[in-house]
From TrEMBL:
This is Anterior gradient protein 3. CDD domains: AGR (cd02960). One of its GO terms (molecular function) is dystroglycan binding. InterPro entries: AGR/TXD, Thioredoxin-like_sf. Keywords: Signal. Belongs to the AGR family.
Amino acid sequence: IMLHSTLALSLLLIAVSSNLAMAIKKEKRAPQTLSRGWGDEITWVQTYEEGLYRAKKSNKPLMVIHHLEDCQYCQALKKAFAENEEIQEMAQNNFVMLNLMHETTDKNLSPDGQYVPRIMFVDPSLTVRADITGRYSNRLYTYEPQDIPFLIENMKKALRLIQTEL
């Protein structure tokens, strides 16, 4: 009987500790739901207001990605964005990052319309950088998967403009 209860206790401890380990792992990954697939290693802010506050405080530009779940162009861009190491690293280290599935009340974030995907940069001085545009004249702030190198250049430009203008 002694052996039986020791075995039962050991099994119980193993079950508890593996559940605990899973809970801890889950706990650690929980905040990443804000990434919505754009990059789980990136620290994302939850709202535009929080993004502006963090940008000002950290003196980093805010990068705002407008997208929708059921938009095939957004999905394609998201995949390219998430798979690009240079973008992921810059996003994590040099930017305040926000991805939104709704429009903000700030009309400066939709200077040429409310389409998706749309990526805009906001300076730490809280100025929306309408001058940092993509390749398409009809949708100035959209990017396609093949435009990733161009987006990288624009991220670098957003960083450069801070240093020269502030």
